[in-house]
Amino acid sequence: MLHIETVTDPAEWNRLVDAGGGHPLQLWGWGEVKATGAWRPLRLRAVAEDGTTVGGAQVLVRRLPAPFRAFAHVPRGPFVGSDGVGTEAERSAVAQAVVEHCRREVKGIGIALEPDWDAGTNVDLPGSRPAAHTILYPSTLVLDLTKTEDELLAAAGRSTRYDIRKAARTGLDVRRVTDEAEVRAVIALYRVSAEHAGFALHDDDYYLAIHRELGEASLLVAAFEDGRPCSFVWDVLSGSTAFELYGGVDDAGRRLRANAPVKWHAVRLAAEAGARRYDMNGLLNDGISEFKKSFAQHTDELVGTLEVPFGPMFDVWDRVLPTAKKAVRRLRRG
Q1: What is the torsional sign of CA 267, 270, 276, 279?
Q2: What is residue 129's predicted lDDT score, i.e. its pLDDT?
Q3: Closest C-alpha to 187, from 216, 173, 213, 207
Q4: Could you tell me if 250 and 244 are in contact, meaning their C-beta atoms sit under 8 angstroms apart?
Q5: pLDDT of 297
Q6: What are the beta bridge partners of residue 277?
Q7: What is the Cβ-side half-sphere exposure of residue 301, based on CA atoms within 13 angstroms?
Q8: What is the 3-state secondary structure (H, E, C) of the chain?
Q9: pLDDT in tens, 257-289
Q10: Burial of 1 (0-12, 13-18, 19+ CB in 10 A)
């Protein structure tokens, strides 16, 4: 039997995440980023009777209008054992403890867990079911950073390898971005890229919060021409995993074919930091996904979203959600 303790110290929580092989979306800073909006983070440690930590979960709680009250989400968690996955018994015990804590303390319509576990990973979670609507993408591409650079390059497509090597020959200015003024310049580039692609963004303060709250765990890499960013990729980094959040490019970056060397530099920095995995965060049927797949000849399937309703209102909300999302998209287009 496990019991739940709430962790309130950022350094202690991040140590738990890294020691437990946790995902970057489980880091304290990510919870603080989401708290700038509609989410409230809870950091829950699952502890055995002898005081041993078995796992944990950062739960994001979103308040909903009456009569729904609240919804709980565990992004790429829980984490279990020392590798994030643990044994089936450990996974089941941690997941059950987190769900029951939220049932008692958060209440609301229910909880959705989106673990960073491979498809087919078994977990005994009474009342759970596969979700019809996911928040994070279960199909992705994960690079094995325990391989050598030569092995990783060999798995990439010919044009991707060419672009990376050309950038090295020509001295393209590709580097990590930490200065806030340059971060703001990257955000401005992201707005140009988003307008070109036709998708909406958060306001600038949201992205600045990632820079501020994640600190060293924010891995932002950009290519520069004449001192201005023209291509970037923005990752978050835990002890085990680098996870892509955003990327963008403008006309200058496309002309310089900067996307591949930028991503490759981020991959190398993640490996140097000790991460074992580089997750490109989702594969869809689009050009961005085709670019991601130019780095490896495989895909990775995660276990997906497990939802546990706390009552009948979950299904009501589940039916309302797609309609609400369509309405928001229509407003944004207008």
Answers
A1: negative
A2: 96
A3: 207
A4: no
A5: 87
A6: 144, 241
A7: 4
A8: CCEEEECCCHHHHHHHHHHCCCCHHHCHHHHHHHHCCCEEEEEEEEECCCCCEEEEEEEEEEECCCCCCEEEEEECCCEECCCCCCCHHHHHHHHHHHHHHHHHHCCCCEEEEECCCECCCCCCCCCCEECCCCCCCCEECEEECCCCHHHHHHHCCHHHHHHHHHHHHHCCEEEECCCHHHHHHHHHHHHHHHHHHCCCCCCHHHHHHHHHHHHHHEEEEEEEECCEEEEEEEEEECCCEEEEEEEEECHHHHHHCCHHHHHHHHHHHHHHCCCCEEECCCCCCCHHHHHHHCCCCCCEEECCCEEEECCCHHHHHHHHHHHHHHHHHHHHHC
A9: 999 999 999 999 999 999 999 999 988 867 788
A10: exposed
Greatest alpha-carbon span in the chain: 61
Average pLDDT over residues 127-145: 94
- 21, 84 contact by CB (below 8 A): yes
Residue 323: the pLDDT is 60
> Position of tokens 């978050």?
236
Mean pLDDT of the chain: 94
Average confidence (pLDDT) over 81-96: 97
Residue 80 in tokens: 């279990």
pTM of structure: 0.94
Backbone angles phi, psi at 39, to 5 degrees: -105, 150
